[in-house]
Amino acid sequence: MPTLTKILERTERFTEDERKWFHQLAGDWQTIADISFADLLLYVPTDDGFITAAHARPATAATLIETDIVGEKVDGDSVEHVYAVFNLGEMIVSEDSSVSNTFIPVRHCGKIIGVVRVISALLQDRVPSQAQQNYEEIAQDLFEMIASGDFPLEGMPAGFRHGTPRVSDGVIQLDDDGEVLYASPNSVSHFRRLGVDEPLIGNILAETVTDIFDDFSIPEESLPLVLLGKAAWVAEIDAHGVIVSLRALPLIRKGERVGALLMTREITELRRQERELLTKDATIREINHRVKNNLQTVSALLRLQARRAVNDETRVALGQAQRRVGMIALVHEGLSQTIDEVVEFDSVFGSLLKMVRDIAVTESAVDISLNGSFGKVRAEQATSLAVVLNEVISNAIEHGLVKGGKVEVNAERLGERLFVQVRDNGSGISEQGPGGGLGTQIVKTLVNGELNGTIEWSNNPDGGTLVSLELKLR
User: Are 327 and 318 in contact (CB under 8 A)?
Assistant: First the structure.
């Protein structure tokens, strides 16, 4: 489906600022669609005529355009109105038996750069309510702001926090002094829950809200500007255990602010859930930190015990245990720093090689290299894979490369299949195979059980040992 960016790229007639203006308009015109109960279409001129560049459907009424027409050329009866509005720079309203169409010039820095079409249903038999009359008045102001180049408003936030109110949540209309001209039932309920008992209509909202704060409350700095409707901004009121989000949209006529549209939404439960998530996140981070510290403590104790061991076999066994615990701690630290369920294993393998070089019992130089990539590995299998590679590479260094040499790791990922070869140029293995020590048992258990694969040891034709793994990762 064509996007606004791609449609604007079809012609070179727009400057960079004009392109940004189109994006700002389409990014915030949902409020206009909701307050006017209408579909909005943005028409932009291209070398092939006017193209429908964006479409906003109202959240407060049923859409009158069920199909996706973005990217289509404007034709039919509307073409004449579009060209007339674009050339003359004035709004045109046309009606039939059931639909009203308002064509609005999109002005930027005094230049007409596009046309907005407002399509709304006509309800001939319905007596307009007070709310509908107020909504129509606000909508007309916003239409004229588009035509005069005052909408979208300067300084409007580029992005809104989760919970920012919309027209369907609650609406308050203010005059230029901040006095409430109209308040929807939802908005009245929001302020009543905050502790405002007096009527909103006829009072200055900023003064009405002042009494609900206690001595310990610290209102947001932007709150007075939002409550008076002087700035296109958002703020929150937190009082008596209730949180209400506010968004102000100043209404401008002929360059002068004549009032504001204030949207309200109670977000008490939403913010409570966010705080719970933050608390849980902090708790998880603390647990991960303690697990890492405990693993490092166990590794340090094993290393200390190995140094004090008088028996060589005991010293080697404790050293191997210390290395395995250290590897688990290393992988856990990497996994705890991300919320993803998968990890780029190449980075884990880089840390693994550093640890192997530091711990391997050999005085000769050993060169270890990686060819290929492991790809992404799920968290529950990353630790097992790291332990297996740690055992295989460490065994190659300690037993096959006593006098130094080279270890080459080749990794190839094909979907869920991972093929790994660990090749060294050492002394090779005996005809009986790799032996039945604890390390070999650990490797076989993890490969067969956790990694759903197979492992084979063989002598490399060019000398040394070749360990081949074929794993199926989840």
Answer: no
